[in-house]
Design goal:
Blueprint: H1 5-9, H2 19-27, H3 32-38, H4 44-50, H5 54-63, H6 71-87, H7 91-111, H8 116-130, H9 133-146, H10 151-163, H11 167-180, H12 185-197, H13 201-212, H14 218-230
Helix pairs in contact: 4-5, 5-6, 6-7, 6-8, 7-8, 8-9, 9-10, 10-11, 11-12, 12-13, 13-14
Length: about 230
């Protein structure tokens, strides 16, 4: 297995943010019953989650981990922080959660160098969190050297190609992804959109009709029908 140098190059610099102050400020907004819930069984991970603060629960979960923790536990911690930054609406909090997610996935990979999922999720942190697209591209391309048919790596490279208006490359990526997971609605939809962008309306319709066959929700089917009808064929 080739050495995965990109993870070793990642140096997480946690945002200068007093998270304990944030926790205290959130406590001041709680009801009496919620404060009582926090005191139950001294389980801050569960109790903060139960009252709706998944981000603070993620923070306390990470604090339970140490050098004896397993790769799977660091993955779970990273996943919790990914949910936190997806739900956050404050840029300082978002960066704090992204930094923690990156750190956790890096730890997961260090403990299990064969953990492809850790690399995929690191890439999504760079795409959605830090906007460091080229770091994500390097991670994803490294995966494809080892696993040319990896669905996630091909799919996310396809998405990035769409963002940079490289539609022919996007088509190639989505088609490769669909060879691995032919029932991925998202991949079919994005493939259809890529064909629209290239001006190949006929192929776009064919692809989107294939996608339609996988959808069960009548409202989504109707929306897709309307979209297909609006596609012009040159």
């Amino acid at each position: 297995m080739p050495a995965f140098s990109n993870v070793n190059e990642i140096k997480v610099e946690f945002s200068e943010f007093d998270y304990d102050f944030y926790i205290d400020s959130m406590k001041s907004t709680l009801t009496e019953n919620e404060l009582l819930t926090l005191q139950q069984d001294n389980n801050l991970v569960k109790n903060w989650y139960d009252i709706g603060f998944r981000d603070i629960s993620a923070y306390y979960f990470k604090n339970t981990l140490d050098d004896r923790s397993k790769s799977s536990e660091w993955m779970l911690s990273g996943d919790k922080f990914q949910v936190a930054f997806a739900e956050a609406d404050n840029t300082v909090l978002i960066r704090f959660y992204v930094d923690n997610a990156i750190y956790c996935y890096e730890k997961a990979f260090e403990l299990d160098p064969g953990n492809t999922a850790a690399r995929i999720r690191l890439a999504t942190c760079f795409i959605d969190g830090t906007k460091e697209v080229m770091r994500a591209v390097r991670l994803l391309k490294d995966i494809l050297i080892e696993e040319p048919g990896n669905f996630d790596a091909n799919y996310y490279l396809g998405i990035l190609s769409m963002h940079s208006a490289q539609y022919d490359k996007a088509i190639m990526r989505f088609e490769t992804a669909l060879e691995t997971e032919p029932h991925s609605i998202d991949a079919w939809l994005n493939l259809g959109e890529a064909y629209v962008k290239t001006g190949n309306g006929q192929k776009a319709k064919e692809v989107l009709l294939e996608c339609k066959s996988l959808i069960e929700d009548p409202e989504i089917i109707q929306m897709l029908d309307n979209y297909i009808d609006a596609i012009e064929i040159n």
